[in-house]
Specification:
The protein contains 8 helices and 6 strands; from the N terminus they run E-H-E-H-E-H-E-H-E-H-E-H-H-H. The protein is of the alpha/beta class and 227 residues long. Strands 3-2-1-4-5-6 form a 6-stranded parallel beta sheet, with helices on both faces. One of its GO terms (biological process) is D-xylose catabolic process.
Amino acid sequence: EPCPTPEPPKAEPGAPPGPTRWGICSAGAISHDFVVALKTLPPTEHTVVAVAARDLGRAQAFAQRFGVPRAYGSYEELAEDPDVDVVYVGVVNPAHLPTGLLFLRRGRAVLMEKPMALGAHEVAELVRTARERGVFLMEGFWTRFFPAWQRLRTMAAEGALGSPLVLRGELGFALGGVPRLREPGLGGGVLLDLGGYGLQMALALLGGGGPPKTLRAHGVLHPTGTD
């Protein structure tokens, strides 16, 4: 069955293209932060047209706060909205795979909050589906777009830093009281929450930007089994 494609923004002949129309999946804190950031851009370039949450009341409160025209009480309704060009997915980690597949199979471009999924096999399924449907899929590492980071990568690529051999990174927040991080069933653990920032920097700067030949990890596990 052919997947539907979003209807293009309506514009007069010769007029500039309309804004990219965003749908927001989940009305939690990370989606709040994403929309706050998105609204710093010109509305002629980006606009939020719909938000969905598993609880309609939360979606409506989110919509009222940010002036979003439509609120849905299910992700399926958002996937069927013909006016959505791309969906930002801010659900909890274990829901990344099924939620991402829902939108990709409907032909919606997806910006997936990191981590992309809980493991390589899940990421592979998302990537395969996006390629089969011919739609955009990206993991939302905002640090990759910081001007300072882009400048650092350029300097490294030009040889201005010599040949980097070691990268040491430290990133920490007081998150000991966040139950989500301690529970394997919620996709918890430091690596999926914050560790990816350091890893993606190391992969980009060391070894010519290719995949590592070997990988060794040391760490401490919480009694629940998460790192």
